[in-house]
Amino acid sequence: MDNFKLYTPINIGNVEIKNRVLMAPMSLGYEEKDGNVSSRLQDFWIERAKGGVGLIVVDAVTVDSSVPYLGFTISLGEDKFIPKFKSFVDEIHANGSKLFPQITHPGPESISWMFGKTPVASSNYINSLGKSVRELKVEEIEAIIEQYGDAARRAKESGCDGVEFHCAHAYMLAGSFLSPLRNKRTDCYGGNLDGRAKFAFDVIKNIKKKAGDDFPILMRISGDERVLGGNTLNDMLYLVPKFVEAGVDAFEISGGTQYELCWKIIPCHYESPGVNIKEAEAIKKVSKVPVFVVGKINDIKLGESLVERDVVDGVVFGRPLLADPELVNKGFEGRYEDIRPCASCGGPCITRERSNPVAKCAINPELGREKEMAITEAKIKKNVVIVGGGPAGLETARIAAKRGHKVTLIEKSDRLGGQINLAAIPPHKQDLTRWVKYLKVQVEKSNVDVKLNTEATAEYIKELNADVCIISTGSTPFVPKVKGIENIDVITGSDVLSAKVKDAIHGKVLVVGGSLVGCEVTETILHNAVGPVQIHMIEMLGEIAPNLCPNNKVPLMKMLNEKGVVMSTNTKLLEITEGGTGVIVEKDGKEEVLSGFSKIIFCCGAKSVNNLADELKDIEVHIIGDANKPGQVHHAIEAGAILARKIGDVENLDSEKVIAN
What is the C-alpha R_g of the chain? Predict the structure, then answer.
């Protein structure tokens, strides 16, 4: 273990933090409706405290119980919340971390409109949900400033070590006052930079008055709002020393704005790591108190380097701590290959299922189920054979082996990883290879017998004396049976991504299917073009890439439009004509002829491959992942994780029920 400065103590005000790693505030959907910390949320944070985080920042704790941020919002708006919050804080302390609640008035971002109360803001405008917000009167502002101080006092009485004051992203009440994008006032709370900052200064003063000068304030700001007309880095360089003089004890430097540039706040595939480093480094030079940086610091080695080079005083991890709660301990011990990596994918931690809108993680199915999914030794040790080395098969193998089963993993190709290997091909997505590398290393360390270049047959599986066979053979591209398709050489998106198309694709190209795969294939063709390319994408549904998170979709659509990609929705392929250079489509109920194509590429989804299951008799068989039902990577990994935890403990497992849990 190298003695990196990242793992040394630092003071925020008079509070010593054991290392320079902060856990970013994140709304996860695990909160209680009544304003208290749920047991699920407490379990989540305790695991991160055990994992070595120096300071946990709890997201969006409202200072006014009648003004929730989301449907499930933690509150310190009344004294009645102190006892339960204190119990929670005591648990965090017992496991080695300090805790700051991020106190905020949701203001324009409140869902108070859902029960007939107009959200309030610095000025009148339309919020990100398309709802009108109301400008606060001066006497209302003064009352809210008192609420901030009262919430800080409650935090102190709950045993918290300090508070974070959210003033970033032109978002929520304090952010709306600070940003010229939202604040159009002409009284003492607006008009110029000092006027816009008055609300923040008054809140800081009231916190210190009611919670004491010795109670630290960590302030979250946008180092640069990156929008014309918004706050700039120079504005922050002017304000930061003044905030320090007013009583701020440390800064968390984020960037961007919530409405205009959400992908800058939660950077995904289209942003480089460390998006706010430049601003944080500049702010550190004018700040007398510690400066921490957040924003796609998705590798702890980058965090180590930033602190070692004195670029910043510490780093803030968000999604990487969703992926691996033990991130800090593993980094401190030099166990980098054991860190379950965050690929900043913009997956289910952001893009949540409507029926169950809680955060999940593509690579960590244990997220939010830390106790429920603890790995225990199997009651009955079995001989488990897994067919298919994609993400479902690898996760199943890893967990089953850790539970004491004898595991053999059979993969017909020469490499593990399955569809992730193709998903990592498009520009900006190389980080997905980190998932494969991690799973491969863990499978090797678990003594799984991996057999590459091996075709699994019923006879071979019986020769291995399998008690349980898990079919995770994935899927194959689906190609629709349309008239005229028999006259062309069919090219699928997988063919393009795997470079099976030998010649460079150029000219006019038709991409059939506007899902994520269709978009990725289009982007890959454009990126690799060696000559003029014009792409026309057709999609049966009414939207291109409907399930893609805004943080990836907005920059993707911007790029596709800039490259001149024609995107036709509500368009169905009916027939291929002219020897494969033309098609007949139905758009909005009317037939159209499109022609002049040099290539037609099919990105129409996938169909499961699981034929082997029917050939296996007298063996417990389970079908998981895409072999059961094509879906996203987190569905596959989750199915394998759940199934592996039940083998040897539950008789006559039903794979369908296991997957549904």
Answer: 27
Tokens of 128: 């990100």
- Of all residues in the chain, the percent with pLDDT exceeding 70 is 98
Residue 602, number of CB atoms within 10 A of its CB? 25
pLDDT tens-digit map of 27-71? 898 888 889 999 999 999 999 999 999 999 999 999 999 998 877
Question: What's residue 569's pLDDT?
Answer: 96
Q: Which H or E element spans position 18?
A: none
Element (H, E) at 338: none
Specify the pLDDT at position 2.
60
If we measure between CA atoms, which residue out of 286, 276, 273, 275 comes closest to residue 234? 286
| Cα gap 249→219, rounded to integer Å | 8
Model confidence at 451, in pLDDT bands (50, 70, 90)?
A: very high
- Antiparallel, parallel or unpaired: β 217-222 and 163-166: parallel
Instruction: Tell me the two tokens of residue 140.
Output: 């209302």
Angle between helices 516-528 and 550-562 (to 10 degrees): 40
* Alpha-carbon span 571 to 548, nearest angstrom: 20
- DSSP collapsed to 3 states, 86-97: HHHHHHHHHCCC
325 within 8 A of 48, measured Cβ to Cβ: yes
Tell how far CA 380 is from the center of its chain. Answer: 37
Q: Coil, strand, or helix at residue 393?
A: helix
Distance CA 67, CA 103 (A): 13
Residue 171 annotated to the active site = yes
Q: What are phi and psi of 486, to 5 degrees?
A: -70, -10
pTM above 0.85, yes or no: yes
Q: 171, 189, 270, 438: which is the annotated catalytic residue?
A: 171
Categorize the per-residue pLDDT at 25 as very low, low, confident or very high, splitting at 50, 70 and 90.
very high
Q: For the chain, give me the number of helices (H) and strands (E)?
A: 20, 28
Higher pLDDT, 258 or 297: 297
**Around Cβ 90, how many Cβ atoms within 10 Å?**
13
- Asked if pLDDT for residue 191 goes beyond 80, the answer is yes
Helix axes 39-50 and 82-94, enclosed angle (nearest 10): 30
